[in-house]
């Protein structure tokens, strides 16, 4: 089997890697959203039964926000490594979000 002119093995490997990265990022995002919804449901139930007070949740969210700000500054460098402008990455991301 011959590869058509203008398409190299390197470009094929790059497309495959971009697709797999998109798929994994899509799966990760979908699972993070699932966990977030479950945690939110648990917090609402605990507030409803009186096990938690809204001020306790507010303080915890403020501390979480400060930690998230610090983490965001570290993650920003890694975001630039993703080939998010590649159509293969976007296709993998969508499949990971929908089918994951």
Report on the structure:
The protein is an all-alpha fold and 100 residues long. It has helices spanning 9-48, 54-79, 87-99. Helix 1 runs parallel beside helix 3. The longest helix has 40 residues, at 9-48. It is elongated, with a radius of gyration of 20 Å. It starts with 8 loop residues before the first helix and ends with a helix.
List the helices and strands and how they pair.
Elements: H1 9-48, H2 54-79, H3 87-99
Instruction: Tell me, briefly, the overall form.
Output: elongated
How much is the average pLDDT? 88
Poorly predicted runs are none
Strand content: under 5%
Number of strands: 0
Radius of gyration: 20 Å
User: Treating each run of at least 4 consecutive H or I residues as one helix, how many helices?
Assistant: 3
Core attributes:
mainly alpha; 3 helices; 100 residues
In short:
This protein has helices at residues 9-48, 54-79, 87-99. It is mainly alpha-helical.
């Amino acid at each position: 089997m011959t590869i058509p002119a203008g398409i190299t093995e390197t470009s094929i490997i790059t497309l495959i890697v971009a697709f797999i990265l998109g798929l994994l990022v899509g799966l990760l995002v979908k699972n993070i959203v699932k966990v977030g919804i479950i945690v939110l449901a648990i917090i609402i139930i605990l507030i409803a039964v009186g096990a938690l007070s809204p001020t306790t949740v507010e303080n915890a969210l403020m501390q979480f926000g400060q930690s998230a700000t610090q983490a965001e500054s570290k993650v920003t460098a890694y975001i630039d490594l993703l080939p998010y402008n590649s159509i293969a990455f976007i296709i993998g991301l969508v499949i990971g979000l929908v089918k994951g």
